[in-house]
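Reply to dn_fold:

You asked what the input looked like. This is it:
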Amino acid sequence: MKRSPRSTLRLISVAWPFVLIVLLQTALATFSLEVTSSLRAFVTGESLWSKGQHDALYYLNRYAESGNRSFVDRYHEAMAIPMGDRAARLALEASPPDIEAAYQGFLDGANHPDDIPSVIWLFRYFRWLPVMEACIRDWRTAEGVLMQLLPIGEAVTSQHVNEVDRRDITRQLDEINALVTPLTKRFSDRLGEGTRQVQTVLLVSNVAMALIFILLTVWRLNSFLAHRRRIEEQLSFSAHHDDLTGLPNRRLFEDELGRMLDGPQTRHALMFIDLDQFKAVNDNGGHAAGDELLRRVARDLVKAIRGTDLLARLGGDEFGIVLPNCSPEDALRIAMRLREITEAIDFVWNGHRYSISASVGVVHLAERSYTLQEALRAADIACYMAKEKGRNRVHVFETTDAAQTQFTANLHWVQRLHRALEEDSFRLFSQAIAPVDGTGEAEEHCEILLRLEENGKLLAPGAFIPAAERFGLMPSLDRWVVRNALDIIGRRRGTISGTYSINLSGLTLKDDTFLPFLRDALRRSRVPADVLCFEITETSAIENLDEAIAFMNAMRAMGCRFALDDFGVGMSSLTYLKRLPVDYVKIDGSFVRDMLKDKADWMTVEMINQISHLAGRKTIAEFVENTEIFAALQTIGVDYAQGYSIGRPEPFRAEATGLVVPLRCADVA
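and this is what came back:
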């Protein structure tokens, strides 16, 4: 796993003090061991030197007392030790130092070969220390006295010495011993004292380094903990606040509202604020403009509320406010002020000036006992109602408001419809469409109808379609119908033919993704496009005429056909009939149902039929409830009829229903 350069630098910045301390501690420990080892070797060398000079005096004394010349040889052996050390000292004091000669001198001084490099290192680099300098000075002084033995040794070596001369040698040796013994002792004592001082210094240094390491560890640990606390605080802030505006987010807002609802029952208020015209700012100025506007709105709203109020951004362009201990009058006054402040915002972006407003929903929580979800739902409904009534206004939630009650019912339908889509609770029915002229059709012709099944009961479209249209769910319902209808048609045996009419909503006409969806659905089902006839209402077609024409032409290019549904409700649409590429015109059933009783309805049906035929369209009359109406339609010359006298809606299944036998004039009679 590769580590990024940034994380590597971060690791180095954190770890380098510890690495440095460890390195320094290691170096100090190594240095301490080296110094201790060198001091030990130096003390050992001093002991050998002291023993050598002591033995040299001793053996000369024995010779002077006994005249035994074997003691002379042993004197030379003992004297070689201090003489070797003297040669080594002189080699090290030379400029430049003669290391090889010094090594040989210490070797002659009976020092262990492994100890000699440590003694040389200590002598070369630390003789400037006062304690070492005093030791070497005592060494040099004692050595100068000891050198007086050399003439005596040469004399007893080169000639026979009589008893008188031996007594004189004994006297000289006693004088030399009296001088050299204190010097040797002082040399040894100073060396011992220096060793203890150096060891003390090394101990203090190691303890100090350990204390520094501990302090650094504590400091670093405290820094880590402080850094962790800062990160936790930042994470906590980020988890409860909006990154864009810095306001509390929905999570903190709901927590605060929940605590307030669970507390003592007193006068509280809740507000939802939804910005009007915000989409225009985002579309025209870009998201950067929208973000800056949200920050501006947040700053202005914060200044207008009380210090105890909690303003939060709930998402998008929606804000919420919790107002503890707020009377209905004060809540309404604050809501009006917030609306006015929002409306007064003069927002300019890239030279363009934008105007916005706010729809504010207010809920007085003291009027009843609310749960958290009930309070949020009430505020949401109140805000929706403010938008429904024209925007840029304040709406107070009232349980007795009829329009609000209907709106609430529609909102309830939204949840039910979402659940129905997820659970496939919709059912498809079909109603036959038959030719009026009595010639009959060899292929099935029907309109596919939608029903909702809940708890074993079927609900007609009139119960849920208004809510679906109001809250933008019709494109989802249209896709469900198309997908399932094609699946049923595709599972029918034999060659697929006939005409199957499917209703499309006005929102689907504006949906750019519907055409790719339809192409994919046709490809998967292998149903030919020419068996589909899509019905659109004249209102939705005329409302977005150019878009509707482009949409219809694209689908007709695939092979689909179109019918203009509920024709005649808006008479202004007659002028657009030629422009709309439809194959059928469905005469609205409100005219057909009463055409036998109302002369105006008869004339309307007749006029629509004539105009449609002149425009090259076939006509379908809806709500044909009896044979009398069917006979009237034959007289007028309408092409097709649909209604209970033709056939009632029945489940749309993969097994094709029997063809409708058209009514004949004899049947009518």
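The CA atoms of residues 32 and 203 lie 9 Å apart.
Hope that clears it up.
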